[in-house]
Structures are given as C-alpha cells and as structure tokens.
Design brief:
alpha/beta; Rossmann fold; 5 strands; about 45% helix
C-alpha cells in the first residue's frame, strides 16, 4: 500500500468531472483498489449574501447524482467510498479544509479542460490547490479514450 493513496480526497465539480475522474482513478490506481479509501468531495458554492447560482434543492440533487456516479464506479472497481457535501463561499478553501477534516493522505484530481484565456482570467485553481494544499496533491491525466 502506498501511503499517498491510502485515503484520497477527490473533489468533484459536476457529473462529467465525476465520470472523468473515476475513469482516471480506475485507469491509474486499479492495483490499489483494495487499499484505497476514496472521499468524494463536492462543494456547493454559496454566494455569501448575493443570490446563489442556482436554487439549493437543484444543487443538492446534482450532488446526489455526482455521488451516485462515484459510488457506481467504486462498486465496479472495488474502492471504499465516503461522500462529503459541504457548503462554502470559497471552493479552494473548502477543499483544503475538507482534506484536513477527512484525514486525507492526498488530494487527487483530474484538471478540467480549459483554455489559456480562461485560466488567465479566472486564476488557475489547479495551481493554487497544488501550492496551498496541506497534503500531497496527485494530478492524473485525462483518462484514455477506448475505442470499442
């Protein structure tokens, strides 16, 4: 067992991100499934006094769909999964705090595709995560496309 992957916090933003991340985990960590606990972590971003991006019930339903995807993959590949839903005004801060609270040995994610301009205008959350994380950060490449 690798200590880095004994308990990984896996932040997932939406259904597509959950699927892509689970496929990457299965592809790159399949040999460690019986020794790895996955903490699927979703943040519902609160606007802090301003109107939220979407109604809370809709966002909670999305979180349920995200967690079902992760749980489905975990059953297929044999990972133990815990799900955590948090509310926060700062997604990065919520993920960093979540890693500590979950006693994670690492944070694992697959960067979402975005253009250079988007990264420049919005700041690169991936870079901030890597530089500010209280535990090691594992960045997996996009899962391979398999032709059937």
């Amino acid at each position: 067992m690798t200590a880095l992957t004994s308990r990984i916090l896996v932040p997932v933003a939406n259904e597509e991100d959950a699927t892509r991340t689970c496929e990457a985990i299965a592809e790159h960590l399949s040999d460690e499934a019986d020794t790895t606990d996955v903490v699927a972590f979703h943040v519902i971003e609160k606007a802090g006094g301003a109107p939220d991006k979407a109604p809370l019930p809709a966002r909670e339903e999305q979180a349920e769909r995200i967690f079902k995807i992760v749980e489905s993959y975990s059953q297929t590949f044999g990972y133990t999964v815990e799900t955590r839903l948090v509310f926060g005004t700062d997604v990065l801060e919520s993920i960093l705090d979540g890693a500590v609270e979950a006693d994670a040995t690492s944070i694992l994610f697959v960067p979402r595709p975005s253009g250079r301009l988007t990264r420049l205008l919005t700041g690169n959350l991936s870079s901030q995560l890597v530089s500010e994380a209280p535990v090691p950060v594992i960045t997996l490449p996009q899962p391979s496309e398999v032709d059937e």
